[in-house]
Amino acid sequence: MSKKEQFEIDKNSEDGHIIHLKHQVKVNFDENYNYFIKSPIKKFFDKIFMYFAYGIFKIVHCIGFGFKIKNRKIVKQLRKQKTAFITISNHCHMLDSTMAIATAFPRTVYVPTVEPTMKIPFVRHILRAGNVMPIPSNLKGLVKFKKDCLEILQNKKVLHYFPEGALWPYYGKLREFKPGAFRFAIDANCPILPYCLYFRERKGLQKLFGKNPLTTLEVLPPMYPNNNLGKKDAIADLMQRSHQAMLEVINSHPYDNSRYANIEENLKENKK
Predict the structure, then answer these.
(1) Which terminus has fewer CB within 10 Å in the chain: N or C?
(2) Rounded to whole angstroms, how far apart are CA atoms 175 and 15?
(3) Buried (b) or exposed (e) across 245-267, using 16+ Cβ within 10 A?
């Protein structure tokens, strides 16, 4: 994909995708699809795969993107409690899913993604082994997906959500959130753990390994549901608190990607 194609939005909305996936295979994600992997044998081999993949992730993240994790001790403290939690992050890197998985490792992290991602030949099998699961576009599949997500949390696993929705590579600002992750947090009565991804300019020898900026993931303190509120208000409250906390951190590490200037300008015009 050319840079020109990559930085064209497919509709005039923050929901518009920058990355356009092609060459998809036909797979039906419906009420019969197991979004939550329950087979003991499959879970065993997937766990082995993840230990192997984790080593690769560390090398690729470090060498290719200068990846750093700040405040990882917060994740370790939650892991020790052996309770379910939902991690969220801004969606601004092609490998932000693997970065989120690596940050919570060795806890099992399930990562919902848009349907087309799980229809890429060969890659879809690797993603599935890494507990990535599609968000179905049909109603019956969506009902089953939500049921399985709650079961994941009831089994004290971790969900990772991108509440912004669409992936905008190397976008240095925080977009608006959608309520899905926060609805699950209220239903399962579990905390939201915000991850803030922001960028650093390459310097010195780092410029020899690429042109894109280096990446930092900063873990924020967990956000707990306000059980004194009704469900609708509790979802809105948790979403607002999470967004505000992340916004303050990301704004304190500004990265202005000029390739998004036209998109931002068009979005401003549409809001008038």
Answers:
(1) C
(2) 10
(3) bbeebbeeeeeebeebeebeeeb
Over the Cα atoms of the chain, what is R_g?
Answer: 18
DSSP E strands, 60-190: 68-70, 85-89, 109-114, 132-135, 158-161
Task: Supply angle C-alpha 69, 247, 5, rounded to 5.
Answer: 80
pTM of the model: 0.90
Cis preceding-peptide flag for 116 (omega within 30 of 0): no
Closest to 218 in 3D by CA, of 181, 240, 245: 245
Report the C-alpha gap between 117 and 132 in whole angstroms: 10
Tell me which residue of 120, 104, 209 sits closest to 159, measured CA to CA. 104
- Encode pLDDT of 73-102 as tens digits: 999 999 888 899 999 999 999 999 999 999
Contact 175, 168 (CB under 8 A): yes
**Beta-carbon contacts of residue 122 (< 8 Å; ≥ 6 apart):** none
For residues 136 and 32, give the distance between their C-alpha atoms in angstroms, rounded to a whole number.
12
